[in-house]
Write a structure and sequence with these properties.
Strand content: 5-15%
Structural class: alpha/beta
Number of helices: 11
Largest sheet: 7 strands, mixed
Shape: globular
Length: 251
């Protein structure tokens, strides 16, 4: 049996590298690629792959929102998240919307193969770095009062809209990305601003910067592209590797 894989990754070099690694494995083939969340949904519905390698930091619709929509429509497609983020918010939200596995981009080749095989085999996989972080975070939260961060106040849809609006998109443009109406975007935008205690677009952009969804850019270089002073997409962030630990593989 040949397993069919869809790669969702916006960085060209990494996407091509993943394709090479997967096609070198026996009984695996790459049937498609996508560079952003909305395209990932279209490809998933069209190609019906056995598994999707899903980046979380994507232009437009993020990987968590894309995973949620794909899982609602085709729950049998398995999703293995491949990302740099190992914070509790990203991991738990990805698993909550239906991701079947979570592995970091600095994983070894052997770990990457194990993650693919585990998820294809119908089990859940959390890489050692993330499992160690989750355990430490859980133990810390048991000993400390529970804090509510701005990020976990928001739904997955509100997070997508926060990012898109902070990038400078209008309600209409945001709605086109998410396949919803501009009026629905406006409602979600009002809700998220209320939850975060924001009063205007400037505060919304500052919050997005604080949450790492976008980054500061050089105004002069950005103005050459006709968008002076607007925020840019946040690139993947590097993460430090904690001590080795065994991966968690759940039925």
């Amino acid at each position: 049996m040949t397993y069919r894989i869809l790669i969702v990754e916006d960085h060209n070099l990494l996407r091509h590298g993943l394709r090479s690694m997967i096609t070198a494995l026996p009984n695996y083939e790459v049937v498609g690629e996508a560079r952003e969340g909305k395209e990932a949904i279209r490809e998933a519905l069209s190609l019906r792959p056995d598994m999707i390698l899903m980046d979380l930091s994507l232009p437009g619709m993020n990987g968590i929102e894309a995973t949620a929509q794909i899982k609602r429509r085709v729950p049998d497609i398995r999703v293995l998240v491949l990302t740099v983020y190992k914070t509790d918010e990203y991991v738990t939200e990805a698993l909550r919307v239906g991701a079947d596995g979570y592995v970091l981009k600095d994983a070894s080749y052997d770990e990457f193969v194990i993650a693919i095989q585990t998820v294809i085999g119908g089990k859940k996989y959390i890489c050692p770095d993330v499992s160690m972080h989750l355990i430490n975070d859980f133990l810390h939260r048991c000993d400390a009062p529970k804090a509510v961060t701005p990020w976990n106040k928001l739904t997955a849809r509100e997070r997508s809209i926060l990012k898109l609006v902070a990038e400078g998109r209008t309600n209409r443009m945001t709605g086109e990305f998410l396949n919803i109406s501009a009026k629905t975007v406006e409602k979600h935008r009002a809700n998220l601003m209320h939850k975060l205690g924001l009063h205007n677009s400037a505060e919304l952009i500052l919050m997005a910067l604080d949450m790492g969804l976008i980054e500061h850019v050089n105004h002069s270089s950005h103005s050459a592209n006709g968008a002076a002073g607007s925020p840019a997409l946040s690139p993947d962030l590097s993460s430090k590797k904690p001590p080795d630990s065994s991966a968690i593989s759940l039925e």
